[in-house]
Amino acid sequence: MPFVEAFRQFQFKVKKENFVCAHVSFILQPGATGDDKTKPTQSSVRELRGLGLTPDLVICRSTKPCSNVEQVKRKISTFCDVASRQVLFMHDLDSIYKVPLFMENQGALEFLQDRLNFPINVAYNRIFMKQWKKLSDKIDNSQKIIKIALVGKYTQLTDAYASVSRSLIHAAAHINHKVAITYVEAANLEIETKLTNPVDYHEAWQKLCRSDGVIVPGGFGTRGVEGKIEACKWCRENRKPFLGICLGLQVAVIEFARNVLHLENADTTEINSKAKDPLIIEMPEHCPENKGGTMRLGKRTTIFKKGISSVIHKLYGGFETIEERHRHRYEVNIEYVERLEKAGLKFVGTDTEKVRMEICELDDHPYYVATQFHPEYLTRPLKPSPPFLGLMLASSGKLKSYLNNECRFTPDESCSEDESNDISFKLQDLVMTPPNTKNKPV
């Protein structure tokens, strides 16, 4: 109810021409009769109107396609007081990436264009939807599968890694592959689990060993950290493609310090505040007494170090700086950076003050990259995040040829160069700037 009331007030604040209410309702399809029941939709629309909101679009969800679309549309149009063009249908599809195509075919774009007086650049829209169709076809028709082991702390609820899994799907589709994600509980990789629950221990290691690549995402707290460190060690020693994110970078640094620099007491102050060798420390801004509002958040600039050959720098297009989103309280202790780099762990990206390590990369490894930021937050279906794309390429054995070809695909690997250029425009290009932008659509 607070959200409904907020929207009711919001529509008057921004005016009707800048506000569209889309009401999603489920169409019942009883198995016994096979009819499409619209009564629940009619009732919910009446209730919505009683709360002060009038639906501009009625989107009818159903498990399978309606048997008589025109009849259902006519009923809803008559009893819900909306035009037929304002009634859209959306049955369950085998891929979420088909939804925009399905809605466009029903005239959703034209309705929004008229309703919001929102001029659309038709030429760019045609190119954009063409590429979206190709993406959907790639996801449907890809035969080759890349197996990725995700070593996490919250694997019992895989939705906790929804953004990571989508990033992997985007990157895999970009190279005409599918991705099969295996969730590995980090704590099960630890020696302690071998003693208490050997079955879970061996199953976890089997999942890790059967993968083509490994990703260690972020997390908080002490549980499972040692397991993540073991995963980093295994990837480093066995030359398995690896991507660490946030905590993934921190455990990669700790593992390298312990097993390459032989600093046996290397640790993070998040776990051991009195660590003899604190490789990971809390940021000066972080107040241990009060964790609220003390994280380093939001989009921040990362600067690539000059004069260092870097795979991840090439994947980002060779730009001197990039912007990615952050969410962390701990960082690499700058006092150990020089020793780590001399041993082969390069910190190729830093913050603008050059005191915070943002990206690390291992020398002489197929792909061993870790980032302090969260690249999954800025991935897009038609523009996958470079660190994830690098992991997919390395896991499929295509990274070397991709880099040798100046970060372009050969014709047999993915879309042609012309097709790649088709999607190099910004989404803002879809909208033509109207002469009067005073009442810009919200």
Number of strands: 15
Instruction: Please give the count of helices.
Output: 16
By secondary-structure content and strand pairing, the structural class works out as alpha/beta
User: What is the percent of helical residues?
Assistant: 25-40%
- Radius of gyration based on Cα positions: 26 Å
Major β-sheet strand ordering: 5-4-6-7-15-14-13-10-11
What would you call the shape?
elongated
N-to-C span? 22 Å
- The averaged pLDDT comes out at 87
Task: Give the amount of beta strand, in percent.
Answer: 15-25%
- Unreliable parts: 414-425, 431-442
Main sheet record: 9 strands, mixed
Domain Glutamine amidotransferase: 157-391
Pfam family, one: CTP_synth_N
GO biological process, one term: pyrimidine nucleobase biosynthetic process
Domain CTP synthase N-terminal: 1-117
3D architecture notes:
There is one protein chain. This protein has 442 residues and is of the alpha/beta class. It has 16 helices and 15 strands. The strands form 3 sheets. Strands 5-4-6-7-15-14-13-10-11 form a 9-stranded mixed beta sheet, sandwiched between helices. Strands 1-2-3 form a 3-stranded parallel beta sheet, sandwiched between helices. A 3-stranded mixed beta sheet has the order 8-9-12, with helices on one face. α7 crosses α14. The longest helix is centred in the N-terminal third of the chain and has 20 residues. It is elongated. It catalyses: UTP + L-glutamine + ATP + H2O = CTP + L-glutamate + ADP + phosphate + 2 H(+).
